[in-house]
Amino acid sequence: MGSGTFSSKDWATYATNSNYATKSTAQIFTQQTMDKDLDPKGVRYRESCDSVDNLITTAIIIGLDTTSSMGMIADTMAKKGIPTLMESTYDRKPVEGPQILFAAVNDIRAQSSAPLQVTQFESDIRIAKQLEKVYLEGGGGGNGSESYILAWYFAAKHTRIDCFDKRGQKGLLFTIGDDGPTPDVTAAELEQVFGKGEYKDYSSEELLTLVSRQWEVFHIMVAEGQTHGDRVRKQWESLIGERAVLLTDHTKLAEVVTSIMQVTAGADHNAVASSWDKSTALVVRDAIKGVSRGSKAQASGVVTL
């Protein structure tokens, strides 16, 4: 998947025809159960491939929390985030040929019926159409975590990405939410999500090592969420260090993702932050201040997290 290219004209037409400006979150995301096209059960691979339209591509996974406290994240991404992310990536060129897959994450340990949903990798307006298929389940439990690491397992085991296979360049994986990571995932849980097969238990640390072989892994902590606090921050920083990024304004999510990609590619923190308008610059500067400039992992192929 991933042919075609994104254009602001196509986006404007789609947003107008879809009446995004007047629609509520519930009117955009109308799914009442998980769409069969997004069910990871039985999915062998999602592929990010070079094509005539995109000779050199970069795979990007955006993992959105769909529990009750985080519904505004998908809404923001649908109405504003997609065009901002794609256009700023094309303009600023932190990576070439961005191909985006959305993963929707819930809480498998709170009896979620859709603990993980996955779109295709797309490079054009089909990104928006795919995102609209996501089921905003809500729910989530009081267990201190959400199942973000299911997206790690999916990326490690069920993707094929030309950026890595052909050029040794890692894909970029961002999960976004306000809670902590589950400390592990069991074989039974993996079978529940991905279907019958042979699985093993993984700790979150083991999964991080596994996914980091082909993916640069970040988590964006949403400060406005109901469960965010020192506990969540410490959990993520203990697990992934500086790649636990604090987002103080969820409406600036796309700008922060683009800025992380710029810094990871070697751009100067202050230059990146200052390149945005004043209000956005403040959010971006706070978010990216701890992210290392350049990417040792990407350059060497060695897992450094």
Give your account of this protein's structure:
- This protein has 305 residues and is α/β, with parallel strands linked by helices.
- 39% of the residues lie in helices and 16% in strands.
- The strands form three sheets. A six-stranded mixed β-sheet has the order 4-3-2-6-9-10, sandwiched between helices. A two-stranded parallel ribbon has the order 1-5.
| Cα end-to-end separation | 29 Å
Rg for CA atoms = 18 Å
Number of β-strand runs: 10
* Helix content bin: 25-40%
Compact summary:
About 40% of the residues lie in helices and about 15% in strands. It is α/β, with parallel strands linked by helices. Helix 3 (about 70-90) packs across helix 10.
What distinguishing features does this structure have?
6-stranded mixed β-sheet, 10 strands, single chain, 305 residues, alpha/beta, 16% strand, globular, disordered C terminus, two-stranded parallel ribbon
SSE order and pairing:
Blueprint: H1 8-17, H2 25-28, E1 46-48, E2 58-65, H3 71-92, E3 98-105, E4 116-118, H4 126-131, H5 149-157, E5 159-161, H6 162-167, E6 171-177, E7 184-185, H7 187-194, E8 202-203, H8 204-211, E9 215-222, H9 230-240, E10 244-247, H10 253-264, H11 269-274, H12 278-288, H13 296-300
Parallel strand pairs: 1-5, 2-3, 2-6, 6-9, 9-10
Antiparallel strand pairs: 3-4, 7-8
Helix pairs in contact: 3-10, 5-8, 10-12
